[in-house]
Amino acid sequence: MTLRTSVGALIGAVGLSLLAGPPAPASSVPPTPSTPSTPSIPSTAVPSAAAPVAVAVVPPPLGEAPSSPRPAPTAARAPRPPAVLRLALTTANVRGAPSHEMAQPRVQADLDLAARRGGALLLQEIWPVRYKRAVRRTFADRHVGLVRRSSNPVVVDRRWRVLERGRVTTTRTVPGTTPPRSLTWLVLAGDTASGPVRFVLMNTHFVAGAWNGRRDADVPLRQRLWDRHYRLMRRYVTDFNARGLTVVGGGDFNRRRSDGLLPFTDRQRWLFDDVGVDKLFVAPAPRGARVRVVARATTQANSDHDFRTAWLRIAPAERSR
């Protein structure tokens, strides 16, 4: 197509639009009203089952592994306390008086023997420093009471709580007659299903040579010292009973019951027959812990004293009705 032909076609189209006249006016008839439509309720878009839904996965921080939901931790139940508490009590004189000390291997063997007998030990004649060191080393996993300032320490396993500890000198050194003597004790506590238990664990070592039939010149002095020791110990036992504390005790009494050894209180009972001078006893308080003996044993040691053990069951005081 040439330029002349295009211009002519354009002029012809303009002329035809002029011949057609102006556009028709808008109709004056109002439109028919339409029924109002119900307003649309917005709805949550639900993705089509056919179309997969993209989920953004946020990776864990560097160095952390993805974690899954964990259940809330539950508190572990504490074990129920026993109905009664058991105590194996041993009195052990580990021969260590001046001029009567044993060789260290024999001392250690006796301490090991005592340790195997039970959880509570009443030791006597722990005078030499090497004996004291051996006691601390052998019973490092237990309470060792009053070993530094006394020759008769009290040892007990750590399931017991130590509420008090005490020591009193009963006899001072008398050259040629006796080394110093003392009374030692621990106030212990434990828990049972029916309530707490408290009692006293007491240890002692009386003056020797007062009631063994010897006729030495200083026997009257030894007897006076022995009697004073006994009166002082009786006062402590009765005072603890007045506080509602049963006393479980023992030691080397250096006197037999057949030689006039008397109980400290009317309620006290000896745990062994009248054999030897090594004793165990229970002096119950009227409202104190109840103690029952279930077994007894005597064991020969390197020392010149046998070790005596009593297995006890200890329960809280009966509740008043």
From TrEMBL:
<dbReference type="InterPro" id="IPR036691">
    <property type="entry name" value="Endo/exonu/phosph_ase_sf"/>
</dbReference>
<keyword id="KW-0732">Signal</keyword>
<feature type="signal peptide">
    <location>
        <begin position="1"/>
        <end position="20"/>
    </location>
</feature>
<feature type="compositionally biased region" description="Pro residues">
    <location>
        <begin position="62"/>
        <end position="72"/>
    </location>
</feature>
<feature type="region of interest" description="Disordered">
    <location>
        <begin position="62"/>
        <end position="81"/>
    </location>
</feature>
<feature type="region of interest" description="Disordered">
    <location>
        <begin position="23"/>
        <end position="45"/>
    </location>
</feature>
<protein>
    <recommendedName>
        <fullName>Endonuclease/exonuclease/phosphatase domain-containing protein</fullName>
    </recommendedName>
</protein>
<feature type="compositionally biased region" description="Pro residues">
    <location>
        <begin position="23"/>
        <end position="36"/>
    </location>
</feature>
